[in-house]
Automatic annotation (TrEMBL):
Pfam families found in the cross-reference section: DUF846 (PF05832)
Keywords, comma-separated and alphabetical: Membrane, Transmembrane, Transmembrane helix
Membrane topology: Multi-pass membrane protein
Family to which this protein belongs: Belongs to the TVP23 family.
Coiled-coil stretches noted in the UniProt entry, renumbered to this chain: none
InterPro entries (alphabetical): TVP23-like
Organism phylogeny: Eukaryota, Metazoa, Chordata, Craniata, Vertebrata
Name of the featured protein: Golgi apparatus membrane protein TVP23 homolog
Segments passing through the bilayer: 34-53, 59-79, 126-147, 153-172
Gene that encodes the chain: LOC107117407
Amino acid sequence: MLRQDSNDDTEDVSLFDADDEMPRRPKKSKIKHPIASFFHLFFRVSAVIVYLLCELFSNSYIACVVTIILLLSCDFWAVKNVTGRLMVGLRWWNQVDDDGKSHWVFEARKASPPRKKVTSEAESRIFWLGLITCPLLWVIFAFSALFSFRVKWLAVVILGVTLQGANLYGYIRCKVGSRKNLTSLATSYLGKQFLQQTVAKEEQTVS
């Protein structure tokens, strides 16, 4: 069933309703989708390696740029449409309704009894590790290219930040819900931190 967020035109929907009605098995740590897990890391890690080493093995700037762009594009498509769905049960996309209005849709499998689990803990760790680490590397590359005046690489680095950052943002939205939930989650976290610091100070004062 669809639930629409009227503030930011997003929808949080269940993923694979038919699967949700099936009994689920206890979570296992083994990798159930080895090919998806491999390609989840292959394209993004390869793009990073090519960016770091291409000038050592090739004098052609155009060939390096084209190779990196192809790897980043393949990574964006694979992570957005395949690996997220298989490895963690999440997916996001944009759709246009009959009125021509754009909607962002975020999918996540509903929680169900732990009798059958389509995803595994190991795959989840691989997915989130790759999803978070690589965009951070591209942000570092962006600052490095800017401060070292490697202007010719800025466009490629910005593309890496944009494509991989978009997937990271989309899957975080899938995981924790709408923008309201993100705001409340941040507020709750800051509130807990403030409360812990206040209690610690009071305990120090008493002692």
